[in-house]
Amino acid sequence: MAVLKREKKTDYAALSSSFMRIPQMKVDVARCLLDIGLTQVYQLEGRAPDSLLAEIKARKDNVREDVIAYLRMAVYFAENQPPDVRKLYPTEWM
């Protein structure tokens, strides 16, 4: 019996968003930010990553645990130009 391969849907809106300029950013986290109404990196300035996570959880039922690390990294990137390259890894924010 042949196994049918399902093609993954590609989220072109998230891929082309300004959030993908953030190094190591995952597409699904960029999609979450778009879903809560943010469209540009500068909109993350001054925002608390925990409040962003709360907004995301209000819209989505199942949110991965590592999303908070990506949100912390994204807020850091938005607030610090030029950013410290060592801090542009999600593992630094866990």
Task: Describe it.
This is Pathogenicity locus. The protein has 94 residues and is an all-alpha fold. The protein has helices spanning 12-15, 27-35, 49-59, 67-79.
What is the CA-based Rg, rounded? 15 Å
Order of helices and strands: HHHH
Structural class: mainly alpha
Q: How many DSSP-defined strands?
A: 0
Q: What is the helix tally?
A: 4
Helix content: 25-40%
CA-based shape: globular
The largest sheet is: none
Kindly, what is the distance between the CA atoms of the first and last residues, rounded to a whole number of angstroms? 44 Å
Mean pLDDT over all positions: 89
The portion of residues forming beta strands comes to under 5%
- Which runs of at least 5 residues are low in confidence (pLDDT < 50)? none
Summarize the structure.
With 94 residues, this protein is mostly helical.
Blueprint of the fold:
Layout: H1 12-15, H2 27-35, H3 49-59, H4 67-79
Helix pairs in contact: 3-4
Keywords:
single chain, 94 residues, mainly alpha
